[in-house]
């Protein structure tokens, strides 16, 4: 089954060209089923690019998924046309009274900014607290994972001296949980963050179960005991060239970034990078949708919470 998205959303054309089954709203109105409702809070600067990446992940499932797009505020974006945001995105006030089967909160380029200085921090706190009763399961990606640790556990930001950037080996620690069903014992995933997620810190100060970890990158996947919050500290949704584009951006900005680790052939940025994490990225999102969302959500969403 497909994901259902607005007819004119740019992702619809891109995913259709990739032979991914996308159902437009006009076609979906003729189907008599109860699709999953997933809300995507997109905090990334290049919102259209992130939409496509995440909808590509959500499409790899036999379930029909309705996706609503949420913006944190109505400030002007430097990387996304205002017309796009006004046409396809909701403000929180418009969805506050809704209930959703799933929520995804993306990362944000705010690794070195204290939470108290994030202009939309109060709204983000409200959304995370709201999700505890209005959403069956929430997926926090990268910076959002650290924000959620602050909101839900009171943990202060843990910041690295040097940005973690590259593709790292992870070992699966939990064998039989459905979220990692089909995972190899070791798998690759990309990271791009200043945040530090050390395993001992997570285990000592939270009740989260750590499902996957890396010697270099720390905790990659952690889950609340009731499976309603999933923390992914990397970017399994990234395209093959996303880390490259970030490296070029930071280089042009004079930040003198380190070459992303284990990414370019022979650590040569002139070489075309290739994805080595795509299969596990798709598997993670498919397992989350099926086992943590679909299998646990009530048919009548008004019963949620």
Automatic annotation (TrEMBL):
It is an enzyme of class 2 (transferase). It holds the Pfam family HTS. One of its GO terms (molecular function) is homoserine O-succinyltransferase activity. Keywords: Acyltransferase, Amino-acid biosynthesis, Cytoplasm, Methionine biosynthesis, Transferase. Its main location: cytoplasm. Pathway: Amino-acid biosynthesis; L-methionine biosynthesis via de novo pathway; O-succinyl-L-homoserine from L-homoserine: step 1/1. Its EC number is 2.3.1.46. InterPro entries: Class_I_gatase-like (IPR029062), HST_MetA (IPR005697), MetA_family (IPR033752). The active site is at 142 (acyl-thioester intermediate), 235 (proton acceptor), 237. The record marks 111 as: Important for acyl-CoA specificity. It catalyses: L-homoserine + succinyl-CoA = O-succinyl-L-homoserine + CoA. It is found in: Cytoplasm. Substrate binds at residues 163, 192, 249. The keyword Acyltransferase applies. The record marks 192 as: Important for substrate specificity. Transfers a succinyl group from succinyl-CoA to L-homoserine, forming succinyl-L-homoserine. Belongs to the MetA family. This is Homoserine O-succinyltransferase. It comes from Pseudaeromonas sharmana. The gene is metA.
């Amino acid at each position: 089954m497909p994901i259902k998205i607005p007819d004119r959303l740019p992702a619809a054309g891109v995913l259709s060209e990739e032979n991914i089954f996308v159902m437009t709203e006009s076609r979906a109105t003729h189907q008599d089923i109860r699709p999953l409702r997933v809300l995507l809070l997109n905090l990334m600067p290049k919102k259209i690019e992130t939409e496509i990446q995440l909808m590509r992940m959500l499409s790899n499932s036999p379930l029909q998924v309705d996706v609503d797009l949420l913006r944190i505020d109505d400030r002007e974006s430097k990387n996304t046309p205002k017309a796009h945001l006004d046409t396809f995105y909701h403000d929180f006030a418009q969805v506050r009274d809704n209930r959703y089967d799933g929520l995804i909160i993306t990362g944000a380029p705010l690794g070195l900014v204290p939470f108290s200085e994030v202009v939309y921090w109060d709204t983000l706190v409200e959304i995370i607290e709201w999700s505890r009763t209005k959403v069956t399961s929430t997926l926090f990606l990268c910076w959002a994972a650290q924000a959620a640790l602050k909101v839900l556990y009171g943990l202060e930001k843990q910041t690295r001296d040097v940005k973690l950037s590259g593709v790292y080996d992870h070992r699966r620690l939990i064998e039989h949980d459905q979220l990692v069903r089909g995972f190899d014992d070791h798998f690759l995933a990309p990271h791009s963050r200043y945040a530090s997620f050390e395993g001992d810190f997570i285990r000592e100060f939270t009740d989260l179960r750590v499902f996957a970890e890396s010697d270099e990158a720390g905790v990659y996947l952690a889950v609340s005991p009731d499976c309603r919050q999933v923390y992914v500290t990397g970017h399994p949704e990234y395209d093959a060239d996303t880390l490259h584009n970030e490296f070029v951006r930071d280089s042009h900005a004079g930040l003198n970034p380190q070459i992303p680790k284990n990414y370019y052939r022979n650590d040569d940025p002139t070489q075309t990078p290739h994805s080595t994490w795509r299969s596990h990225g798709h598997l993670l999102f498919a397992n989350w949708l099926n086992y943590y969302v679909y299998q646990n959500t009530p048919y009548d969403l008004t019963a949620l919470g």
